Each structure stands twice: as C-alpha cells, then as structure tokens.
Amino acid sequence: MGNKETKIEKFIKQLNPKGLYDTTLDDIKRYNRADTVNMSEEEMNRFRHIAGPAILTSNYYPAGLTRTLGYIKETKDLFQGRGIEDIKYDLKNNEIGINIGLKFPNNSNKALYDYVFNNHIAPLRQKGNDTNGK
Description:
The chain is 73% helix and 0% strand. By secondary structure, it is an all-alpha fold. Helix 3 crosses helix 5 and helix 4 (63-79) runs antiparallel to helix 5 (84-103). It is globular, with a radius of gyration of 14 Å.
C-alpha cells in the first residue's frame, strides 16, 4: 500500500473504510516478515491495533473518525463473542495509534510501522515482557 497516491485515489479509498481497513491489514501483514521483525502472535495483535489507526489518522481520516471506526469494529467483535478485556486492550492500543498518526501527519506506512515497532514492540521484547499487556 503505497503513499504516493493521487488525491482522487485517496478520496476513493476514504469513501470505502472497510476496503481501506482490509488493504491496511494486508500491508501490515507484509511488514511482519520472518527475515525482519518476526513478531509473535501477541506482538502482532498489539502492532496491528497501533499501526492501523496510525496509518488511518496520518493519511486518511481525522482522529475522531478513526476512533469511531475502531469502536464500530470492536463492537462487532464483542457481539461475535470476543471478551470485554480484549476489546478494552484493543481500544487502548487504537488510541496509541491515533496519537501517533496525529504526531506524524502524511507519513509513509513504512515509517509509521518502523516507529510503532521500535517504540511499542521492541522495547517490551528487550525487557522480556509479555507485549500483550494483559
């Protein structure tokens, strides 16, 4: 998912939040390669919930809309049987991502991913902590 898109391409993506979400998730999965960051499932969960909202806020939507989309997604997850603690954890990480997106507007996906990994995954890994925070 490149950031060198025209204003029309960006506008079309903004009109389809579900499609943009799916494309962003695919891009995040490509970042987590065995020859680079190689995140565990727990690390990847945290990374996804920080990096996704960072991308959406930095490049596509105002913070309030990114937050609302996150609430909608997590509400859907709640009705599909996910636990309330998991959802609270996901929303907390979404908020971290939104703040990163606000701090680094119009940034490339790669730069945002590197920032999230280096500041929110790697430090916990080095300490030997459970990065899931539960």
